[in-house]
Amino acid sequence: MQQQSYGPGAPRAGTGARVLVVDDDPTVAEVVAGYLDRAGFTVDRADDGPTALTRAAAHWPDLVVLDLMLPGMDGLEVCRRMRGHGPVPVIMLTARGDEDDRILGLEVGADDYVTKPFSPRELVLRVESVLRRTRPATGAAPLGAAGLTVDPAARRATKDGTELSLTLREFDLLAFFLRHPRRAFGREDLMREVWGWDFGDLSTVTVHVRRLRGKVEDDPGRPRLIQTVWGVGYRFEPGAGHEEE
Asked: What is the C-alpha R_g of the chain?
């Protein structure tokens, strides 16, 4: 048997992009797939985790719409395994209103989430928003400070010369901080500027800041680069990266 090949191909965005919809509820999957198809996306479907991994191996998706509660292998594990083979944006679906479930999805690297019941039109808008941010920023100059470098055109980030493994939102968040050093931003500001939404669960921002600190700070428990501004939000301090204690 020919070995399956995981990993991303040439990035695509906009209409024609391949979206893998993973949901064990056939009605939800059919409705979501139908709306995405009418919006011009190429849609694959899977109703459980192992099938999702097989479909991804055969045709690596540009984005995954992934239900959290799947039989046998839950969405968190599917997300972990896919991310182990290559970067791919993930929008998590959850039928629960429990904040812990949403945060778990973000912790394993989901870029966004939608709580059931949801508007299929809103989901399509979120898919389009996430995919727009995967497009290389043609002509954008590299950014750098405190041993960190970000190349928006290549969507590549390094710390002291070592490449960082960042999700889509983590990359965008770091690039935004590097573009606006020493300025304090509220979580609402970051939601609007980085996620492109004027509304949303602000815990999304909190989780992504925590994850980003874990990758760029020498001591994430005592962050010096991405500092908390109490009562406001966060501020990037590029001069703090190599100061003496």
From this structure: 18
Mean pLDDT by 10 residues, the chain (245 residues): 40 69 93 93 94 93 92 88 83 72 69 83 87 70 90 89 87 93 94 78 85 93 94 89 40
Per the document, the length of the chain is 245
* Residue 93, φ and ψ in degrees, nearest 5: -105, 135
CA pair distance 121, 1, nearest whole angstrom: 41
The Cα–Cα gap between 25 and 45 comes to 11
- The predicted pLDDT at position 168 comes to 81
Q: What pLDDT, in 10s, does the model give residues 157-187?
A: 999 999 998 888 889 899 999 999 999 999 9
Which residues fall within 8 angstroms of residue 176, CB to CB, at 6 or more apart?
190, 193, 194
Beta-sheet pairing, 184-186 with 233-236: antiparallel
For the whole model, what pTM was predicted?
0.70
